[in-house]
Amino acid sequence: MSQKSNKSHKSIAELEHQISALIAENDSQREEINMLRQKLEHMNEILLNMQRARFGQSSEKQKYVSPDQLSVFNEAELEQDPKAPEPDEKTIIVPEHKRKPKGSLEDKIKELPSEDVFLDIPEDEKVCSSCGKPLRRMGKKFLRREIQSIPKSMKVVNYYAYTYTCDYCEKEKGVSRIYSVQAPEPLIKHSYASPSLVADVMTQKYVDGIPLARQEKIWQRDGFALSRATMANWIIKVAEKWLKPLYKMMKKQLLASNVIYADETVVQVLKEEGKAPQSESRMWVYGTDGRSGKAIRIFEYQPDRSGERCKRFLSSFTGCLVTDGYAGYNAVENVTRCGCWAHMRRAWRDAMPKGATMENSKAAVGYNYCNKLFALERKWKNLNNAQREDNRRNQAEKLVDEYFLWVRSVDPVSGSKLEDAVKYALNQEKYLRAFLNNGEVEISNNFAENAIRPFVIGRKNWLFSDTVKGAKSSAIVYSLIETAKANSVEPYSYLALVLTDMQYMGKPFSNEELESLMPWSEEMKQSIVRRTKPTSSSDE
Predict the structure, then answer these.
(1) What's the pTM?
(2) Rounded distance between C-alpha atoms, residue 312 and residue 327, angstroms
(3) What is the pLDDT of residues 343-359, one digit of tens each?
């Protein structure tokens, strides 16, 4: 009996040991499965973001080291040749050149000169097929309307100044006195460059993204031999001599505003002292929105992304600065830093796996909170600053409090996109809340991103700049063009009018004169309307 009992106890002990081992093994495997599941989710997250980067909306941050590509942005400076000959009279074939004001297609059709084409039956067929009697015209019916394209035309403008003399002085005093009008200063001495022609070249290059090499071929097709070197000279000289004072005035107006939106993006400059050709520089953009009454865009080239760059630019600014999460903006003193909820929402979106819902994804919950906030802001879009601030404190603040309370409850996997979103929210909380106390501030920095987008799109063509001089000159042109667009002013009309008016203003330009040339000036807008209004045939 004792032997059987011992065997029975031994077998029970062995079974208990085996069970304990199995339980431990099971726990170990469960832990390994959880770890592998988290790793799989992390890898899926990486794959999803790679797919977004490749097939979806791409990031602005890329490498732009391709010296074989044509530099559109800095092509003017790159192609510039001070010794390039101006076109002479033998190279100019010029009919009239007209431009029409911007508007809807139907409005434009009404303004265009029209021509009626009548389709008629051949004379020998104008008989009745039944009785053979002649047909009588009873009317006409409208068939369709087409718009014909006519290649752009140009004309030569010869300037003369009447001269006068005093016959009495010449006869009685023997002194011949000559009087004449003070001629307007040419854009460029000894050049055929006119305000309309330079504005056309700038608009094609900086608005339409057409490089000077391609413009050269287009001009040739239109019967005008204009070299890229000549156009490059025009852009550089006109930007430095005529447009820079406007650029400085715009910057002065920008720094006097209450709210500034800022962003920056990559630009590569090949020939920069102390830097390798493949290194990255920065193009910064600063702007105001429509609530300020003056929509301004200022581009500034800098060799790096240091916070000292924006600190120096904004040294006299004391309002609200709306930016993304880049810590360099913390260097700016005496401002109220405001965060970007669009970047916050984007962080949650990047952390959402495929097929994410609020039930199975914490990132989707965070994304939904952001959407609710943007929905509220859309409802208050047309309110004045005081009304919007009041609504934010009564409604938006509760949502924001609830949001950050939820953020603190999230326990993300280390190294995941979800962890990145949570860290961004907590690190930026102070700045993300700042909009609640100022009705003039927007909740996102999309304004600055939209302002810099034309530059980013153009960068895909030119890829790099040749020298610092070229980057700075083109920043001036970009600033004026984008500011004009932001004020609903057609860029070509604006540049052509500004350059024309400045020729007749005495240097140095007064602040009053420069203010009258700003794109938001009602005087400027009315002048553009008057000067671009089509001339009727009777007027001609």
Answers:
(1) 0.73
(2) 16
(3) 999 999 999 888 888 88
